[in-house]
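so my prof wants the structure for this chain in the tokens format not the other one, which i didnt know existed until like an hour ago. anyway here's the sequence
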Amino acid sequence: MSIHNMAEQGGLPFAIAYIGIGANLGDARAQVEDALRRLQALSGCTLMAASSLYRTAPIDAGGDDYINAVARISTTLGAAELLSALHGIEQAHGRERPYRNAPRTLDLDLLLYADARIDTPTLTVPHPRITERAFVLVPLLELAPAIHIPGLGAAQDYAAAVTDQRIDQIT
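here's what i got, hopefully its the right format
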């Protein structure tokens, strides 16, 4: 599969992307739900599906539990443009980055962008910790049980390694 597929209507190029969503400050559930609405409203994007919401403990960080989800979108935006748009949604929620893994009002990660492998100073796809985090793998596999991670293989092959991480489905 190429990075872009041809849409059925009009032949416009698009890519299927997966977005990790998380929040643990303020009303985290409302922040995640609003992020899903904003993804649907984002120009050049269509929200195709969203996983259940999950409650998870912070990893390599302190603070309250996170509410997490994964969204599948189709987009006509390039990967860098999409990342910029995701950062805009984070900023609309007051996202601050005082230090690595700080608690956050909203975190949007570009997990997968079609079958692309991207490694630039500002973007790495697949997300570098996609296989190490239950809060990513469990909702990703809910949406796409047979998904393959470019360069790494079947996502399901990594699920057993994260079973020690607490993750509770809440919706």
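also thought this was worth mentioning. Helices lie at 28-41, 79-92, 134-143.
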